[in-house]
Write a structure and sequence with these properties.
Length: 134
């Protein structure tokens, strides 16, 4: 763990399995998950395998708000950005970023976002450790 606002964990699992683990962990902690983007960072002309990534937005439904008719594309500010990066075939890097942590007063009003993010990322790390031991 690096700070209150950003957390990082290396998972000893392949990329696809880590995505499943992240989704299960965050959904079991009560988050709704929205995919943002994904792709391959590996240049086709360079040697080596793929370096896939995916960006997700995790939000707590009870902290959501209804978008107005004037701005239906409005995104929630009370969310958590999850990034998953393929490092090697059996190692994946997962980060979370909580935008509220940069604003301590606002974060104190919604402590469940930070607490649940920490719980979910702990489940990801625990699951990765268990699959490495198996």
């Amino acid at each position: 763990m690096t700070s209150i606002s950003d957390r990082r964990v290396v998972v000893d699992q392949g990329f696809n399995r880590t995505i499943e683990t992240v989704l299960q962990a965050f959904m079991s902690a009560g988050f709704s998950i929205t995919p943002i983007e994904g792709g391959d960072l590996h240049m086709k002309s360079a040697p080596g395998g793929s370096l896939r990534y995916v960006l997700l937005e995790a939000t707590l439904p009870e902290l959501g708000f209804a978008a107005s008719a004037r701005r239906p594309e409005a995104t929630p500010i009370l969310g958590c950005r999850i990034s998953v990066y393929e490092v090697t075939g059996s190692c994946t890097f997962v980060t979370t970023s909580n935008p509220l942590a940069r604003y301590p007063l606002l974060a104190s009003l919604v402590p469940r976002l930070s607490a649940r993010t920490q719980t979910a990322l702990g489940l990801v790390a625990l699951h990765g450790a268990h699959s490495a031991a198996a």
